[in-house]
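Ticket #4471: structure output looks truncated?

Reporter: J.K.
Steps to reproduce: submitted the chain below (220 residues) through the standard prediction queue, then opened the result file.
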Amino acid sequence: METKLKTKVIKTIRLIEEQLKPFHISWLKNTQIHEDPYKILISCLLSLRTKDPVTYEATKRLFKVADNPFKMVKIPISKIQNLIYPVGFYRQKAKFIKELSKQLIERYKGNVPSSLNELLRLKGVGLKTANLVLGRGFGIPAICVDTHVHRISNRLGWVKTKDPKETEKFLRKIIPKDYWIRINSLMVVFGQKICLAVSPLCSRCKLKNICKRKGLTYFR
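Returned output as attached by the reporter:
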């Protein structure tokens, strides 16, 4: 049963990749691109309970002023708040960013650790953030389950889970390791462009004949 599901999952992932080609996304062509672990870490913290476009603009403003922990600790918390506003809980997040940057300098000489256990020891860093840093920052296979991955995996019928942590556990069993890093990026763009949280564009989706549409009452 698990082997059959794995085959279906691979087919589905390839169809998602094919659908995203018209959007001309750079990482679809080059899967070996590694990003700055510190920027990924901070961006992920900012994205919590915040819409993607808001996070994107906030990170642009912030990294223009400080793109590493040494620069970040020199900025007053009030200025960090102004730079990241209006992300959700921006006051608390500004404090987290400052404290996190201090921890990186004191414990790791300003470097972001490449170990799951060490990442989870950092204040404010959870499993989702740690896995994203491992995958996109260091090229270490890890599945980052955010709202898009959790929602779409359940909608497709791959899993039947209530929370992202449980989803990650099941996805590790059915997704080939070669796709662990890129599955988050694929699902995020797929969730933004086609498989929307509300009123997904099922009629134009290449998965319409194989998707279970779990939890859906209305789609286009």
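Triage note (M.O.): checked the attachment and the full token line is present. The longest helix spans residues 2-20.
Status: closed, working as intended.
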